[in-house]
Amino acid sequence: MTELPRSYAERDAVARSFDLFGFLSRYGTLIALVLLVAFNLAFTRNFATMQTLNVNLTQVCTIVIVAVGMTLVIATGGIDLSVGSLMAISGALAPMIFMGKILPIGSIHLAVAAAMTVSVSVAGLLGLFNGWLVARFRIQPIVATLVLFIAGRGIAQVMTNGNLQTFRVPEFQWIGLARPLDIPTQVIIMAVIVAAAAWALKRTLFGRRILAVGGNEKASELAGIAVSKVKIAVYGISGLCAGLAGLIVIAINSSSDANLVGLGMELDAIAAVAVGGTLLSGGKATIVGSLLGALTIQLVRYTLLANGVPDAAALVVKAGIIALAVWLQQQHRG
Amino acid sequence: MTRPPDGPSPLLLDMRDIQKRFAGIPALADASLCVRSGEVHALIGQNGAGKSTLIKVLTGYHRKDAGQVLFEGEPFEVHSPHQAQVNGISTIYQEINLVPLRSVTENICLGREQRRYGLLDWNAMHAEAERLLSRFAIGIDVRRPLGEFNTATQQMVAIARAIGFSARLVIMDEPTSSLDEREVGVLFSVIHQLKAEGVSVIFVSHKLDELYEVCDQVTIMRDGRTVRTAAMKEIGKLELVAAMLGRDVAAVEGHATAFGERDRSRIADVMFSARGLGAGQAVRNVSFDLRRGEIAGFAGLLGAGRTETARLVFGADRPSSGQMTMEGAAYHPDRPADAIAAGMGFCTEDRKGEGIVPEMTVAENLTLALLPKISRNGVLDDSRQREIVERFIRELGIKCSGPNQKVRELSGGNQQKVLLARWLAMNPKLLILDEPTRGIDVGAKGEIQRLIRRLADQGLGVLMISSELEEVIEGADRIFVLRDGVSVTELEAEAANEEKVLTAMAHGTSASSGATT
Asked: Which of A26, A76, A222 best probes binding to B when mutated, by most B CB atoms within 10 angstroms?
């Protein structure tokens, strides 16, 4: 009996040394990112500047924030297609409140606070609705969230009568434009959310339950875990993340167009999660991986654009990277 | 095995010495199956006996490693169920896979539409549908939507569709498990119809009474081998069950398990009781008591309702009738969490499907039920988790490289120990163990049996379901035999022997004991 643990460990070590796919699926994203940075340092002019860093980080922030919520949803074995539409709703609702279109609020600070709270909360509630559909009626997540994917943008357009809302409200726009300590605010927000979610997934009861539900739903139920509550909660969190991302987008643009805010975001976020190494079937997830995944995709695009490759071609490369990441995952599992 | 002598009806199917291995492990060692024309042939055996594998070899789902298959005297080799069907062997599954909103004709001709000048030839298809249904004495308007007819008729249509015109052998794999009595009646009339036309049927079922009602011959399998072939009317139920389980009815063996002798004086008052539990067709009337410090064994054939009863007790499913009490108070769990709160634990028989979370570590799996108790304000207490996990790894002798090894890398026996530890860590009062030693090696099996006994000695009430007769007889202090969803017999350990348990499993009564209330 004292022999066995050692032989297990040995077998493990042997298995690991040959498991190229396992290694790549674990560290592939990080390696790709390092290679990309190295390539750019060598070939792209003016790459090693704060400006480049800021441009890339700023562009990737909203994707990462949404991808964090998406990672939690995917960790339970689900998926959330509605995030882009929820961004549009939150992005449409906030200006209506702080510009006093719904009811006049005297203090602009109060109005902005109300706008942020209400719009993010509404997105969160709609997320809970997604979770309710998934958990209560056992609708497949891809179908359940398709409801708000389609209806959500419509609701945002109806709210604004399809009009572009433009504004110049510094009290609100700090969320996308201010740079405390020379770091863009949204980068700080992103960092905080990533850190909090990564910690929660690893160290809290809730995180453990998320992974258990995604890893084996029946076993979780039999172990007394309230599977439905866990599912509803992750969709709610995904909604909150989308709502926040919507605010950042409109703050950067100084305008809110219900047709455009968050358009295609669901796919960018899912791509980041997939490239990051989270198992799309659930049960195994990494928040930091999703961050790296989003950064990789962003940097590939930047690299290609900075070296004169057209955006359309960059999309093809992006698709290739996603396919590669998912293929690696499958090799590792099989 | 005995091969039936060549009688008036010729052999339709002759499968001999079939061997099949999966990843080196033999699923079929020496399986034979001979079916005559116009014969209804029962194929029975315990879980893992190789029935399904044999059927799948026949229908081309699996490729055999050795042996020969003759169908109508010719070597028969197909590579897909579809090809088997084209060649005269149809399989009927439990579920009806039909489209209720479309007409009967469309349902029957789906996938084999007739065309004329490139268009669908409806007249020809209606005629064909009518012709097919008339084989089964069904006279309905084939132009009307299928959904307008009752379930029994729909069932018939499904069967007719599966059989078609060309089938000479129809395989029915547990066809009655999801049917009510009336639908079973319909199915049996179809079988008689087929028989009258000279079509043979292979009938796989665990319900003994049905076998006697509808089958002519029976082939009994065990551990990948054909152990017996007999005419249905020449073999008694008891003999049938004994052959399935590999018991000699007369023989009494020494101890085959590691439970050892128990001091039963410490068994205390009744802790849990169930009266008249029922849920659907699987559980119809189950009553039993469980005392503190007692190991109660559930014996019964596959499909007798043992696991289903356990799931009702644990709140995983809800009963439609009956009462339960736990420690004197009424007990009606809505979900497993309620059962856990009442002090219960449940080790499932489906270790991979419902037990372990494969991607998680030993530690994470072990503490899955314990999570709320090892966290403070929702944050996991790592040192407490490690302490508990290390203690159980030590106490149960779980062989792993450490708490952080993935549970899927462990052997079956060690996975089972992790699941046992998951519940023992909760300090339960009542533990339900469904096939606790299935699929694990002999060494681990003995360890787990000794552990179960030790736990009972410490006052835990254990409800143990096992398909291994000696495990129930030697391990349990009290044996409840379930048969077709009914608890038919209760036996005290002293009074129990294999013959009594087998008799109860086969006939529903045991000569020398009182039935449960």
From this structure: A222
In a domain, B256, yes or no: no
What is the domain range of residue B220?
11-88+167-249
Q: Do B405 and A224 touch (CB under 8 A)?
A: no
Nearest-CA distance from A119 to chain B in Å? 27
d(CA B456, CA B437): 17
Indicate if the pLDDT at residue B106 is higher than 90: no
B35: left (phi over 0), alpha (psi -120 to 50) or beta: beta
Average pLDDT over residues B93-119: 76
State the smallest CA–CA distance between residue B393 and chain A in angstroms: 11
pLDDT at B289: 93
In a domain, A278, yes or no: yes
Lowest model confidence (mean pLDDT) among A273-282, B139-148, B248-257, B305-314: B248-257
Q: What's the CATH number where B30 sits? A: 3.40.50.300
**B91/B429: higher pLDDT:** B429
Across the interface, of A1, A208, A279, the residue whose CB is closest to B371 is A208
| B30 plus B51 within the same structural domain | yes
Is a pLDDT exceeding 90 seen at residue B393? yes
Phi/psi region, residue A201 (left: phi>0; alpha: psi -120 to 50; beta: rest), is: alpha
| Of the candidate ranges A205-219, B63-77, B420-434, the one whose mean pLDDT is the lowest | B63-77
The mean of the pLDDT values for chain B is 85
B369 to chain A: closest CA residue = A223
Written as six digits, the tokens of B456 are: 């009972």
Inside any domain, residue B296: yes
Query: Please, are residues B15 and B69 in contact by the beta-carbon 8 Å criterion?
Result: yes
Quick check: is A314 in a domain? yes
pLDDT for A122: 97
Report yes or no on A325 lying in a domain: yes
Domain end, chosen from B113, B140, B165, is at: B165
Tell me if residue B122 falls in helix, strand or coil. helix
Structurally, how many domains does chain A consist of? 1
Q: Does B81 lie in the same domain as B101?
A: no
In chain B, the number of structural domains is 4
Contacts of A328 (CB under 8 A, 6+ apart): A21, A24, A25, A28
- H-state helical runs in chain A: 3-18, 20-43, 50-75, 83-98, 108-136, 141-159, 170-177, 185-203, 205-215, 217-222, 227-253, 265-276, 287-306, 311-333
Write down which residue in B138, B165, B192 finishes a domain. B165
B454: nearest Cα among B424, B479, B481: B424
Res B138 pLDDT > 70: yes
> What integer pLDDT is reported at residue B87 of this predicted model?
87
Is B357 close to A216, i.e. CB distance below 8 A? yes
Residue B81 sits in the same domain as residue B20 = yes
Query: Which residue is associated with the tokens 């044999």?
Result: B54
Whether residue B293 is found in the same domain as residue B419? no
- When mean pLDDT is compared over A16-20, A23-27, A71-75, B144-148, the highest value belongs to A71-75
Structure tokens at B398: 């779980």
Q: Is residue A18 part of a domain?
A: no
DSSP state of B361: B
Say yes or no to pLDDT of B10 above 70: yes
B261 in any annotated domain? no
My answer on whether B188 and B61 are in the same domain is: yes
Nearest to A223 among B341, B369, B405 (CB): B369
Could you give the CA distance from residue A138 to residue A221 in angstroms, rounded to a whole number? 15
Which range is least confidently modeled, A24-28, B77-81, B218-222, B325-329?
Answer: A24-28
Do B435 and B512 belong to one domain? yes
What CATH code is carried by the domain that includes residue A162? 1.10.3470
Number of other CB atoms surrounding residue A106 within 10 Å: 8
Q: CB-based contact (8 Å) between B511 and chain A?
A: no
